[in-house]
C-alpha cells in the first residue's frame, strides 16, 4: 500500500487497477477520496485510510459518473462504510471501509488541579490529539478555560473537558452579602447571608438578616447579590 500526502490530509490508496472493459479500481478509490475530502473542514488535520478493493472483482466499466455515498449519511471520525454506485446500463454497487482520523489541537493540563482551583494560562499546553479517541466536550479555545474553576480534581496530563470546569465561585455559603433591590427606580440595600455558593449570574438562596426571610437573588459580584421585584 502506497502513501501520498495532500495539504492537511494523508491518504493511503492501492495502485491496483483492472484492465480491459472493467472499471478501474484506481478510479473507484479516487472517487471515494474526493467524496470523503469534500465532507471535511478546510484546513483541518486528517488521516484517511482506505481498504483496497478486491482485485478479483470485475465490474463493468461505468458509462456515467460514479456516485459515492456514506452508508450512515455522513462521514465521522472512526470507521465508515462508503458505497460506490454505478447507474449505467449494467449498474452495480460496492462498499468500502474508510477509517478517518481527525486531529485537533486541544488543551492539556501541565499540572494537577484540585477542586475549586482557578485555571490559569500557564497551567495549559496545546497538544494535537486524535479527536476520535476523546470524549465529547474537549476544549480547543484557551479563552474558554482560563480563569475558570476546576469542578473536580484533575490530574496532570488530562485533556481539558467542559465537564472539568465551572465559573468561579465569588460568593461562599454562610458569607454576608449586600442585597440590592430596585423598584420604581429606587435602590434598597440590606444585609443577608448566602445559603449556598454562587458564581456570577447564578441564582442562589439568601437569608435577609433583618427580616429573616429567605429570598432568591442573583450573584452580581463578590459579596453582592441583586433582587428585582
UniProtKB/TrEMBL annotation:
<keyword id="KW-0574">Periplasm</keyword>
<protein>
    <recommendedName>
        <fullName>Flagella basal body P-ring formation protein FlgA</fullName>
    </recommendedName>
</protein>
<keyword id="KW-0282">Flagellum</keyword>
<dbReference type="InterPro" id="IPR039246">
    <property type="entry name" value="Flagellar_FlgA"/>
</dbReference>
<dbReference type="InterPro" id="IPR017585">
    <property type="entry name" value="SAF_FlgA"/>
</dbReference>
<comment type="function">
    <text>Involved in the assembly process of the P-ring formation. It may associate with FlgF on the rod constituting a structure essential for the P-ring assembly or may act as a modulator protein for the P-ring assembly.</text>
</comment>
<feature type="domain" description="SAF">
    <location>
        <begin position="104"/>
        <end position="166"/>
    </location>
</feature>
<dbReference type="InterPro" id="IPR041231">
    <property type="entry name" value="FlgA_N"/>
</dbReference>
<keyword id="KW-0966">Cell projection</keyword>
<dbReference type="InterPro" id="IPR013974">
    <property type="entry name" value="SAF"/>
</dbReference>
<keyword id="KW-0732">Signal</keyword>
<comment type="similarity">
    <text>Belongs to the FlgA family.</text>
</comment>
<keyword id="KW-0969">Cilium</keyword>
<dbReference type="Pfam" id="PF17656">
    <property type="entry name" value="ChapFlgA_N"/>
</dbReference>
<keyword id="KW-1005">Bacterial flagellum biogenesis</keyword>
<feature type="signal peptide">
    <location>
        <begin position="1"/>
        <end position="19"/>
    </location>
</feature>
<dbReference type="Pfam" id="PF13144">
    <property type="entry name" value="ChapFlgA"/>
</dbReference>
Amino acid at each position: 500500500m502506497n502513501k501520498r500526502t495532500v495539504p492537511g490530509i494523508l491518504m493511503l490508496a492501492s495502485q491496483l487497477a483492472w484492465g480491459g472493459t472493467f472499471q478501474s479500481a484506481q478510479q473507484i478509490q479516487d472517487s471515494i477520496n474526493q467524496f470523503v475530502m469534500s465532507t471535511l473542514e478546510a484546513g483541518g488535520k486528517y488521516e484517511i485510510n482506505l481498504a483496497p478493493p478486491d482485485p478479483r472483482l470485475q465490474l463493468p466499466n461505468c458509462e456515467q459518473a460514479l456516485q459515492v455515498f456514506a452508508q450512515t449519511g455522513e462521514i465521522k471520525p472512526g470507521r465508515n462504510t462508503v458505497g460506490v454506485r454505478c447507474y449505467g446500463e449494467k449498474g452495480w454497487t460496492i462498499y468500502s471501509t474508510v477509517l478517518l482520523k481527525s486531529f485537533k489541537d486541544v488543551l492539556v493540563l501541565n499540572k494537577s488541579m484540585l477542586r475549586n482551583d482557578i485555571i490559569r494560562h500557564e497551567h495549559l499546553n496545546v497538544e494535537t490529539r486524535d479527536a476520535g479517541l476523546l470524549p465529547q466536550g474537549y476544549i480547543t479555545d484557551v479563552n474558554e478555560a482560563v480563569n475558570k474553576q476546576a469542578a473536580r480534581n484533575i490530574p496532570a496530563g488530562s485533556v481539558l473537558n467542559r465537564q472539568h470546569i465551572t465559573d468561579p465561585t465569588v460568593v461562599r455559603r454562610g458569607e454576608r452579602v449586600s442585597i440590592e433591590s430596585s423598584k420604581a427606580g429606587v435602590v434598597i440595600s440590606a444585609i443577608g447571608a448566602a445559603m449556598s455558593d454562587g458564581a456570577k449570574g447564578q441564582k442562589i438562596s439568601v437569608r435577609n438578616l433583618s427580616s429573616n426571610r429567605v429570598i432568591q437573588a442573583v450573584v452580581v459580584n463578590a459579596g453582592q447579590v441583586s433582587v428585582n421585584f
